[in-house]
Structures are given as C-alpha cells and as structure tokens.
Amino acid sequence: MAFKIIVCAKQVPDTNVIKINPKTGTLIRDGVPSILNHDDNNALEEALKIKDKYDDVTVTVISMGPPQATDLLFECIAKGADEGILVSDRAVGGSDTWATSNTLEAAIKKWEKENGPADLIFAGRQAIDGDTAQVGPQIAEKLDLPQVTYVEEFEIADNLKDITVKRQLEDGYELIGIKTPCMLTAIKELNEPRYMNMKGIFGEKDIKIWNAKDIEVDLTKVGLEASPTNVFRSFTPAPKAPGQKVVGDTENEQAKNLMIQLKGKHII
Amino acid sequence: MNFQLTKEQEFVRKMVREFATNEVEPLAADIDQEHRFPVETVEKMANYGLLGIPFPTQYGGAGGDHISYAITVEELSRVCASTGVICSAHTSLCCWPIFNWGNEEQKMKYLPDLLSGKKLGAFGLTEPNAGTDASGQQTRAELVDGKWILNGAKVFITNGGYADVFVVMAMTDKSKGNHGISAFIVEKGDEGFSIGKTEDKMGICASSTTELIFQNCVIPEDRLLGAVGDGFKVAMSTLDGGRIGIASQALGIAQGAFDVTVEYMNARKQFGKKLSQFQALQFEMADLKTRIEASRLLVYRAADMKDKHMNYSEAAAMAKLYAAETAMAVTTKCVQYHGGYGYTKDYPVERMMRDAKITEIYEGTSEVQRMVIAGKTFKK
Fold first, then answer.
1. CA distance linking residue B71 with residue A12, whole number of Å
2. Residue B350 catalytic?
C-alpha cells in the first residue's frame, strides 16, 4: 500500500514586490508575480524527500484559489509531486482561515474517499500574505489528527510510522515523537527546497480542478459571508528603531556598561 | 503567428532564472578570474535535466523544445556566459549530431548518459589551418582491419578538457574534398587520443577550450557517425543548430549587462541626479533594449523553425549575427555607463564585455553568417 502524503499549498503574491495602497490599506496586486508560498515549498520538499527515499510514496498537492493557481500545481508537479488538486469556486472566495480550513478539510475528505486515508499531511507554517499560521492547525483539528507546528527537523523511521520532529520555539526547541497519520507544518529551517526539473516541466501533469459541489462542502461554512473574521486594515509595519549596542572589551565590562545604562534610565 | 511562450517555456525561464541566480551567479566572477571549469555547476545542471532539454524522453531527454533550450542558455548566460556555453556546446554540438545522424545502437549507447549529464560532450571540427574554411581538414581517418585510425589535431574545442564524448571530423578521402570528410564518435580514453594545450582566452575564461590530439588513435568501426563522406553535412547541420545556442548565449550576455546597468543607473548619482534621469542616457538605453528584444525574436524564431523541421539555416545565421553584434554593442555601452567602475572587475560588465566578443567569432564568425545569408539571397 502506498504511503500517501498530502501537501497543502497556497499561491501568494511575492511580498518582495508587493506594496500597500496607503489610502485604502489594501494590497496593490497589479503586476505582482504570484509565487508558491515559502513555507509550503519547505513542506513540499520534505514530502518529496520521503518520496525520493522510499518506494511507493505518493505526493498530492491540494490548494484553494482562483483558476490561475493551477500554475502553482504545475510548479509542484515539476518539482516531483504526483498530482495537484485546486479547489476553485466563487463560493469559497474571500474565505478567512476558518472558512478556508473548512474547504480544505472537505477537499481532503473527498480525496481520501477516492484514494484511502492520507498517511501524512504537510502544510507550511503560514502564508506570507496573511501571516496567520491558523489554517494548518485548523485542518488537523477538523480531521481529528495529531499535529506538530513549526517543524524544523523531521525524521521518519523505515516503518513509515514513527516520526521524530524538532519543533522550533522562540527560545529553544521541543523534540516530539508522533505517529502517522498526522499533520505537520513546516518552517524554512526544515530544508532547502529543490528547483523544478526539466523532465517535470515537460512531463504529464495530473491537475484537477474541483468546485464547491465536487467537495460537498456545506456552503454556509465557506466564503466571505461565512467568515467570522475579516481584514480590518493592512499596513506596512514601521521599521523598528535601530537597537543600541552595549560595548566593552571584556564580558565583565559589557555587563558593567549595561548596568550603568539601565540604572541611568531608572529601569533597575 | 504566436508570440506567446507556452506554459512550459515560461516555467523553464522561471526555473533557470532561479537556478542561475542561486547557483551560477555567485560563482561567475571567481571562476572567470581563476579560469576554473565549474564542475560542480555541471553536476547540478545534470541533476535538474538542463543538459538534455530538446530530446525525446526515450533517450533520456526532457522531451522539451528548442525554444526552451534557447531560454535555458540565455538565462545561464545572463549571469555567466561560460556556464551558458558549456550547456550549449554539449547540447547542440555533441548530443544533437548523435541524435540526428546516429544509428539506433549509437543513440542508445551514447544519448542516455549524455542527456542525463552523466557524461559531457564536445565537438571537433576546427583545425589550425581549417577555421572558417572548414573544408581544409587535415585530420585523417583510415579504415585498417575493421578499425578506424585517426591522425591529426583539432583546436579551440569547447568543453575539451572535461568532455567524455567527442564528435570529430576527419578526412577519409582527400580527393573528394568536402565529400571526403566523415564524422566519428571518439571517447575520452580511446587509444592514441589525448588533450593538448588549454587556451588562455580573453573571455569565457571558465569554459575549457583545448586542443585534441590524435596520434594513431584507434577506434572501432562502428564509431562512424552517418555514412562515409557525410562528415561535412554532419558538421554544417550541427553548426546551424549550434548557432541558435550561441545566439542565445549572446542574447543572455546582452540582457544580463543591460539589467545590471539599469540597476546601476538607478543608484549612481552625478551632478545631483541619478544617471537614469539623464535623457541622453535614457534614449541610448531604450535603443539597446530594442536591439535586445529584436535579437530575442530572431533567436526564438530560429529555434521554433528548428522544432518545426523547417529549413532554419538562414534564420539561425541571422539570429547569431544580430545577437552577437548586439551583445558586443550592449556590453560596450554598459561598461561606458558604469564609467571607471565598469572597467574594474568589481562590476560584472567588464567580464560580460570580454565574454561578448567570442560570440562574434565562434560557431561561424559574423562574416560567415553574412556569407550564409548572402548565399541564400543570391543563390543561382
């Protein structure tokens, strides 16, 4: 039986290029290229590494977005994924994270009905356009799967059951053992994503487009209307003021200088 | 008529642009200065299928087309012309003649390793006394007891020092002139075959340009490529395709120099203004951009004609002539707009100008391209 991996991926505007209209607070998307979200690229890479190492592994990429998001699936297949599925329907447009995860949950369930249960679901930690980091965990909850977020190292045993991951924390990490089936969200430290390869670019592409009816999703739980949250305002955060460097020839002297400054400001 | 790239071609550009930016560009200045052949880059190009693009999958190719191949050489050359010509010489000058002229056994024997990049290819036509006049071949091949014996020398062979498979021309019957030339497949390690001097060049310094020496070189009879006497046809048809590769290289050099110069002109200030705000310079840049785009259309048209099995030799000659002269004109101007900095090795335009010059010389000089075009115009 094949080991089945699903990767959730999103097409996002390249934030290196994007600007925000200061008057309306909305993103100026004109002429901005769309790219595969960075963390999702790491998620795909980890799935492809498993496929490289073991026989009989399939990698399916599922995305939600407008019809042109099939480009993202093209790219994922050109990197080595087996198939791509795009859920595209006006009914799911404008979804917030809750509505998005309802849609992706329904898509995954439809896929599982046809192909059997997925062994592993990967997603990126967060998308660079929304920065919420909520969709992955919500999908895991809705599918009732154990999950680990912020995965920076991943190891799977040859039995393809036992997984050990290193989960990044702000001030350290956790080593967590988890068994398949499960859901993991990837961060950029996890790996170095590969490029597309020429054989992949010119090969056959198994890309399907599903609409809301295909995935039998409850229409009262998807789309802009059903979304409990909406974007209040978008803005470019002001750059932080440069920090102050505490200098000193020795560690002792540095500590002393720090104390002088803290006391001078009556912080201690 | 359709001026839109296909989805595949667009993704080829995206892929090679990313690859070139991350893997090729960081090395370009160093390998130029060290005159070092980038073996590590060749290995990476092999892994991603960049060394077998326009060939069918049944032989291990990517199943792509010649426009995609042209885009690949263009994008590599945009940051490093040496890397671009490694891909071009391998693909156009070695893989293609074996694919087009080889019998099924030869194709199955050589193409899978060449197209996967496990082996690198080269092409030997030019001799000390047979450059533009390729018909003056002095390398001889004789069939003795079921084996070919080659004697002579080739010069200026791209990829020479690192190739495993060579397509080599040699005279089998001097009395027949051009019809007395035959083509052979020679392998690295064949008895009596060695690599001579490595050239110290003005540009494309990271590409390996060497002599090939044949001293009673003995190869099996089945290494003959095409029929006896087909060599001149093999060589000329190969060069037609090679010109698309070199035209793409020239196009890439021009585009690369143009792009870094736009960036420079947006940053550099003189007389209280950015260079990009001087109208005289703006107009010059507009002209260069137009020439680059015209080159691109000529190059892609020639590649498209090749894919459609049309007669493309004149189109390839025009593409190579125009793209090479554009590369030289653009890089010369780009050095000029960088001022003193452009003349130093701290900025890439210095290297790009040196690299551009070769595109007017190899795979047929600009004069030869004009001969081809004039020949088609005034043919009897």
1. 26
2. no
